[in-house]
Amino acid sequence: MEGKLNNFQVGHLPTVIYKPDFITESEEMLLLDKVYGAPISKWKSLKNRRLQNWGGIVHEKGLLPQDLPSWLTMITQRIYEESGLFPSAINHVLINEYLPDQGIMPHQDGPAYFPVVAILSLGSPVVMDFIPHSRLRTCTDTWDNNDVKSEGSGEEPSEIETDKRMDNHHPFSVLLMPRSLLIFKDNAYSDYLHGIKDSEVHQYDEAINVAEPLVSHKFDQQLPEPGKAIQIVGNKDHKVIQRTAKRVSLTCRLVLKVQKKLFKF
Ligand SMILES: O=C(O)CCC(=O)C(=O)O
Ligand SMILES: [Fe+2]
């Protein structure tokens, strides 16, 4: 299934899609209102951030489903339709809130999820880092020799050839602006860990989705919540964002294995 978001692939992997302004400012404001209007008990505090879980509890045995509210299906349905990358409707949304000095450790998402992730960003921009799994960074003997031979002389891979293979797995970053949608899947999902640094200043020199002229000057933008300005300060040599406001993200995924609702109250 080809979706219209396929035109927004970024970087060297055909498996990272970045769509700026996937939603409008008023939709962003509405979503933030809904997130902060949820009962306080909906928040779960972790060591370095808070989160809300929508769609039900994810178990090893699958999802114990709960219907998503309409303010979320309005978004998940659009992602489902425009990406064409999910075999059925998105049924789970994790909402993460990050203060300017909070982030998320490099990790790979759990096995319960279908391996396509869509992340909608609200509030402050951040940089998401993708780091190759250690097996791909340091260990050369997991390479499939047949594979290497096919592009070389048929002998054992030379150092140069090996380096070239390693080169396919170098770290990269994506600058996630408010209202943007990031989708990653396949290699970007299975061969890399993703994370966000817990510092107030994020460098985006390695960002695969930033065009030079975009960051050659400083600009401010007012945010609906919590009302502070975000700042991108950059020039050709030093590309950084100063995180001065909260970021809220909606991680939209599909759990294929859904348990039956046994009880209805
Ligand atoms: O907040 C984000 O952009 C990333 C969240 C994430 O990676 C996760 O919930 O698994
Ligand atoms: Fe994740």
From TrEMBL:
The entry lists its GO molecular-function terms as: C5-methylcytidine-containing RNA reader activity; dioxygenase activity; metal ion binding; N6-methyladenosine-containing RNA reader activity
Q: Where in the cell is it found?
A: Nucleus
Q: What is its main location?
A: nucleus
User: Which Gene Ontology terms describe the biological processes this protein takes part in?
Assistant: negative regulation of developmental vegetative growth; negative regulation of seed germination; positive regulation of developmental vegetative growth; positive regulation of response to water deprivation; response to abscisic acid; response to cold; response to heat; response to salt stress
Instruction: Give a yes or no for keyword Iron in this entry.
Output: yes
Q: Which domain of life is it from?
A: Eukaryota
Which InterPro entries does this chain map to?
Answer: AlkB-like, AlkB-like_sf, ALKBH6, Oxoglu/Fe-dep_dioxygenase_dom
- What is the name listed in the Swiss-Prot or TrEMBL entry for this protein? Fe2OG dioxygenase domain-containing protein
Write down the species. Answer: Manihot esculenta
